[in-house]
Specification:
Layout lengths: L3 E2 L5 H4 L10 E6 L1 H20 L7 E7 L3 H7 L8 E2 L2 E4 L12 E3 L10 E9 L3 H11 L5 E10 L2 H4 L5 E6 L4 E2 L15 E4 L5
Parallel strand pairs: 1-9, 3-4, 3-5, 3-7, 7-8, 8-9
Antiparallel strand pairs: 2-11, 5-6, 10-11
């Protein structure tokens, strides 16, 4: 099934159910039900591709923290293959920034990926700098392959032109929070993806 193209809407209300969101959220962009369904689809697609790597293929997932923490927790439960999890921490939206301020890597990238298949997992693709930097650095460590998976991709040139093998949802160019995404370190715990009210920014 193809990825979701999301337009700003209040779809949870149309289902007759009030969304569980903070009072600071203006509207829900992607409901928890949509997220759960899409992750099941992504998991099935990724699992099929990993099966094609052959028996004994070594797989390493590299989640980019902190934004992808909830996404990867749900995604790996849809992947039956034996795999390792090696997280990296990257900051590109420090504090109250609502646009990328450049990529800052905290800590080390996984060293033991030579001869293995690597899947980068991130929350959102917008400037593309994070995915490109992590992919380039991992390639220097001689893996057999490097692929990327993001929950959200903004419909802007920088994102659409960045190589990414698995995309959950294409979304408008809006600042979003929830399901792991934050603003000033808040809102990660919201179960939906939503847009903040202007007064909250």
């Amino acid at each position: 099934m193809s990825r979701g193209n999301v337009k700003s809407s209040d779809s949870p209300e149309s289902r007759g159910r009030a969304p569980r969101v903070s009072v600071d959220v203006d509207r829900v962009l992607i409901s928890r039900e949509q997220i759960a369904e899409r992750i099941r689809e992504l998991g099935a697609e990724i699992a099929r591709d990993l099966d094609q790597l052959g028996p004994g293929a070594e797989i390493v997932l590299v989640p980019i923290l902190t934004g992808s923490i909830i996404f990867v927790a749900d995604l790996i439960r849809e992947l039956p293959q034996k795999m390792r999890l090696d997280v990296v921490t990257v900051s590109s939206y420090p504090g109250k920034a609502t646009s990328s301020q450049g990529v800052t890597l905290s800590g080390m990238l996984p060293e033991h990926v030579a001869g293995k298949h690597v899947l980068i997992v991130d929350d959102i693709l917008d400037s593309g700098k994070t995915i490109r930097m992590i992919r380039e650095e991992l390639m220097k460590r001689k893996p057999l392959s490097v692929r990327a998976c993001v929950l959200l991709r903004k419909q802007i040139d920088s994102a659409m032109q960045t190589s990414c093998e698995y995309v959950g949802f294409d979304i408008p160019d809006e600042f979003v929070v929830g399901y792991g995404l934050d603003y000033d370190h808040y809102y990660r715990n919201l179960p939906e993806v939503g847009c903040l009210r202007r007064e909250a920014l």
